[in-house]
Amino acid sequence: MSRRTALCAALALALPLLSAPATAAAKGDPLARFHHQRLDWKSCVQGPDDDLGKELQSAGAECADVTVPLNYDDPGGRTITLAISRIRATDARHRIGPLLLNGGGPGGQTLGDPPWIRRAMKDVGARYDVVGVDPRFVGRSTPLDCHWPTGSSFSAGADRAGFDRMTAFARDLAQRCGTSAGPVLPYVTTRNTARDLEVIRAALGERRISYLGYSYGSYLGEVYATMFPGRVDRMVLDGVIDPHRYSPRLLRGAEAANRHALEDWASWTAARHTAYGLGCTRDAVRTAVNRVQAAATRAPLQVGPYRLDEHTVPAIVLSGLSQDNDDAYGALARAVRDISRAARGQHVVPGQEFAEVLRFVLTGSDSAYGSVQSAILCGDVAAPRDPEVYWRDIQRSRARDPLFVPVTRNLGPCAFWDPPREAPTVIRNDFPALLVNATGDPRSIYSGAVAQRRSWPSSRLITLRGAEQHAVCGVFGSACAEASVNRYFATGRLPAQDVTCQA
Asked: In whole angstroms, what is the distance from residue 359 CA to residue 80 CA?
């Protein structure tokens, strides 16, 4: 589920003078002041240490804030701001329009994504205004932070005592959010984020937008296409979520894909035993993973200033399996190597990359990310409220996957959240979008893309075979997939049939 980025925007388009009929229509529009706001485009750099802003500036982006209502049923009430960035189209003669981005999460920043998306689009990128959006309460938008001691989720552990500890922990997280952010929580939802995209479209002075959404961003795209179908030009959803399975328990059912990803990582690591020392065969590497989990279950392991236990080690392993490349595999191998040394009683100082993972999991340094992610999931769809539902689910499946099931089926703060303010969106029956998914995606599992292709018969599906990869376009480097996506962005015509690419 995605982490962050940032970007900015370029020169604002002057809004045309309204004719008398348009003015009359605006008077009947309760959101007119939001739809017709003038955006103040400025530098994205917010200070001398703002690396994100500098990166955006060097890519030719500028930034603006968009004002939206907190509660769309009360547009005259409290407002919040959304941070957006834009790299303007350089091929003005063949300009297609704005392309809005969402990098997933939920709760991930997208402000910084336009530079690398623009590069991935190659020549066709010059025909779009590429727009990054930090959704409501994310990144540089109006913030939300429940002041949690973690930014992550955890494993339920090996027994009932561990599960009960996680139940108390989840209840405490929910209470912290209720205390610090209670009044706004009902409005931290995907439906309101879709409404925000519609305000952004209008504020940009555009009749329609194109959209590229990754992971959770695919669900946001499905909701936006349902709520505002006439406002979509071209839509690409990468790492597709089946909306019928969307809930706070997003990873439930992803165990098999993650086991397969673990097997491939173990084979990769075994081939590099000299570098990592975790075993010369796939089975030996898997045994090393099981050994560190067993050690962490017996007693916490000290890695630098951090203590890892039965609740954290499986979550760290799972989090390292979303990308199918040497860098990601190496990062996980180094992490498991460090944990293995700690299990043998050695003094371990984690490298910078692993230390950042541990800070995310074991401190409140990324509390805002976890807070917003949970608020969106809890605000969209109600979770089971009885802890016994989760315990029974874990116990039924634990034997076939003792490492991942206690993570993917564990309860979280949504079990103790107030019920959603709105019913979940019933996604429309058909829409002509381009869907992209790897067969081994460990987060947005491939069956979700197949199901959505079936639900949207006029859509097309690009399948990347042979990769345990979450997010494909511009991330994995599949020339086949990216050529099909860029051709669609250039022409607006979907492929005549589904496309299969080999990793």
From this structure: 29
| Position 12 pLDDT exceeds 80 | no
Main-chain phi, psi angles of 133, to 5 degrees: -130, 125
Sorting pLDDT into bands at 50, 70 and 90, what band is 396?
A: very high
Among positive and negative, which fits the CA dihedral 109, 114, 116, 117?
positive
Domain spans in the chain, listed from the N-terminal domain onward: 28-144+186-245, 434-502
Q: If you search the block for the tokens 């690396």, which residue do you land on?
A: 51
What tokens does 75 get?
């547009």
pTM over 0.85, yes/no? yes
Residue with tokens 């809005």: 100
Q: How many CA atoms lie within 13 A of 343 on its CB side?
A: 22
How far the first Cα of the chain sits from its last, in Å, is 21
- Answer yes or no: are the C-beta atoms of 265 and 254 closer than 8 Å: no
> Could you tell me the CA-to-CA distances from 116 to 119, 130, 253, 449, 474 in Å, in that order?
5, 10, 31, 24, 7
CA distance 48 to 494: 44
Query: What H or E segment, with its residue span, contains residue 482?
Result: helix 479-491
Q: Which residues are paired to 15 by β-bridges? A: none
CATH of domain 28-144+186-245: 3.40.50.1820
**Rounded Cα gap, residues 113 and 121, in angstroms:** 12
Nearest residue to 133 via CA among 221, 233, 1: 221
pLDDT average, residue stretch 448-461: 98
Rounded to 5 degrees, φ, ψ at 436 are -135, 135
Q: 434-438 and 306-308 as β-strands: parallel, antiparallel, unpaired? A: unpaired
Note whether 5 and 112 are within 8 A (CB). yes
| Weakest mean pLDDT among 21-30, 351-360, 405-414 | 21-30
Rounded Cα distance between 36 and 43, Å, is: 22
Q: Where are the beta strands (DSSP E) in 244-348?
A: 301-303, 306-308
Angle at 381 between CA 380 and CA 386, to 5 degrees: 140
Q: DSSP string spanning 439-455?
A: TT-SSS-HHHHHHHHHH
